[in-house]
Amino acid sequence: MDVWFTGLTSQEAFDTVSKTTDEVREKAIAEDANKKSRFSFLRRGKKERYRIDQTISPHLYRVNDGDNVMYFEFSDADLGGTQVKATFSDRTKTLVQNLKTKMPPRTMSNTSVLVCPTCGRPKQPEWGFCPYDGNKYN
Q1: Residue ranges of the chain assigned to CATH 3.30.310
Q2: Which of 8, 37, 75, 114 qualifies as a cystine partner to 123, CB 3.0-4.6 A?
Q3: Three-state DSSP class for 126?
Q4: Cα–Cα distance list, 90 to 35, 58, 70, 95, 120 (Å)
Q5: Which sign does the torsion angle of CA 92, 98, 99, 105 carry?
Q6: Structurally, what CATH architecture does the domain formed by 2-102 represent?
Q7: pTM for the full model?
């Protein structure tokens, strides 16, 4: 499992995963077509690779690669961007790493958001203290 934050919106991150998975599926189909041999008839029961099992745009994308299932969960992150949670097997780790590199990391501007100095969460200045850890603001 891997979790990361990206500056993309949930829909953009979802679309990136969908597009990349489609590309990998097409490549796998082409590779399988090139592997024809006199024993190809034995592979007829073989499952389609990188088959989409379930999608709930833009929150869930589930892909089945034979015996391996990959889940991608997308949720809006505090202070903008998207949190991506990927659950995968060792066999599909490279695909997930490639996806991660296609998504720009989330960047924060220190001037646009005030944060609590102790916990790093957004400040609620009208409260006079941090609602998360109780730290008093100066």
Answers
A1: 2-102
A2: 114
A3: coil
A4: 24, 25, 11, 10, 34
A5: positive
A6: 2-Layer Sandwich (3.30)
A7: 0.68
